[in-house]
Every structure is written in structure tokens, then in C-alpha cells.
Design goal:
Elements: H1 2-10, H2 14-22, H3 25-30, H4 38-43, E1 54-56, H5 68-77, H6 79-86, E2 90-101, E3 104-114, E4 119-125, H7 133-148, E5 155-163, H8 168-176, E6 182-188, H9 194-211
Parallel strand pairs: 1-6, 4-5, 5-6
Antiparallel strand pairs: 2-3, 3-4
Helix pairs in contact: 5-6
């Protein structure tokens, strides 16, 4: 039922729907709220059903060791596939978007606009495991976007840290007091093998049967 409704909402082609099934869009959209900040859930209560906490970038063919610039350039080159992975409500605006604050210039890695929530979305790319210090940088960018870029008819800007790995406990601690609309999402270089998906399905079914 989820994939029927999701395919209708996103206007998916048959090929796009098959990818959504293979990369477990159901679990990445409805897996939980701990990756989202207190501010995100207060400002956008429907965010858990609109933003994924895991993104598959297998179309980039990234090696295990890679730079942030290689990741960013790959996403820009394959922006159509990346937006399908993010969700079709995302509109790409710019890369290394310049933010002038005082006498200094800062650059947000990727800037999008989300039609569903009518807000700017800044995506910061990290090649290493999530570090809580990354959150301060992102919140600073959101403040600059809201003060200097956001239009009067738009909603507060959203920030996403996209990293290869994140300790769930560390994420929960970092998100619990953040009043900015932010979230942490992990990117995976390869899709989950079909055998592993089948194993997860069997484990879920067995758990359900045990409860019965």
C-alpha cells in the first residue's frame, strides 16, 4: 500500500518504482524520528514522511575511500538520480552557494528548494562519520539563509548533514536540543544485497509470528 501511494505522489515510472522498492524507501522514510532535530519536528511535523534518513548513491560507483569533492561532483553530475533518491519535491538550485556574513564568505555544499514545505534546503556533505561539531556549522548556514536569502512567503530553511555513518546515540543527543530544522542522513555506496533484504523480511515475519 505504501508503494502504491508513494508512486502516485511522486509520479514514478516503472523503473523508478522498482528502485524505490530495492532501496527500501519504506524504511528510510518511516524508520523513525531520532535523526531529526527537535526544531525540525516542531516546525515540520510531517517531516518524517517526507525526508529519508538513508540515501543510496550506488549510481556514483564511489570507492570506499573518497573525498568530499568527489562525492559532491558525482552528485551534481547525476543530479536526476540523486533527486529521485531524495524525493521529487526537491529542486536543485546551486552548488557551493555563497553566503556573505560580515566580512566573511561561506559556502553551502548543495542548495535545494522543497516544494512540499516551501523552504530552502541546505545539504552539507561529509566523507567521515557524523561529528556533533558539524551541526553548528549547518545551523550557522541556516541562520544566514533565513536572514539574507529566504523570501517572505517561504518557510524556515532546513539543513541536512549527509554522511557515510552516524552513531545513533550521538545523533539522538545532538538532535534533542537543536531548535533549528535539521537532520542527519547516511549515504550508502551500494544497495543492500537481495539476499540480505530477504533475510530481513524473514526476520520480520518470524518476529510477527512469535508475537501471535
Amino acid at each position: 500500500m505504501f508503494y502504491i501511494l508513494y508512486a502516485n505522489k511522486e509520479h514514478l515510472t516503472n523503473k523508478e518504482l522498482k528502485r524505490c522498492i530495492s532501496n527500501q524507501t519504506f524504511t528510510t522514510l518511516l524508520g523513525g524520528k531520532k535523526s531529526m532535530s527537535k526544531g525540525m519536528l516542531q516546525t515540520y511535523p510531517k517531516a518524517p514522511a517526507m525526508f529519508k534518513d538513508t540515501l543510496f548513491v550506488d549510481f556514483l560507483n564511489l570507492p570506499k575511500r573518497h573525498s568530499e569533492s568527489k562525492l559532491k561532483n558525482g552528485l551534481i553530475e547525476h543530479m536526476k538520480q540523486f533527486i529521485l533518491e531524495l524525493g521529487k519535491d526537491f529542486i536543485f538550485m546551486d552548488q557551493e552557494y555563497r553566503l556573505e556574513v560580515g566580512a566573511s564568505t561561506y559556502k553551502a555544499d548543495l542548495l535545494f528548494f522543497h516544494r512540499g514545505i516551501q523552504a530552502l534546503v541546505a545539504v552539507e556533505l561529509k566523507k567521515n562519520k557524523f561529528d556533533p561539531r558539524d551541526l553548528g556549522q549547518l545551523e550557522f548556514y541556516l541562520e544566514a539563509l533565513d536572514r539574507d536569502v529566504k523570501r517572505s512567503n517561504e518557510n524556515p530553511s532546513v539543513g541536512i548533514i549527509l554522511c557515510p555513518e552516524a552513531d545513533k546515540v550521538v545523533v539522538e543527543y545532538a538532535m534533542s536540543r537543536s531548535l533549528s530544522p535539521t537532520m542527519i542522513a547516511e549515504y550508502k555506496r551500494i544497495l543492500i544485497p537481495q539476499e540480505r533484504l530477504q533475510q530481513q523480511l524473514n526476520e520480520f515475519c518470524n518476529l510477527f509470528l512469535d508475537k501471535e
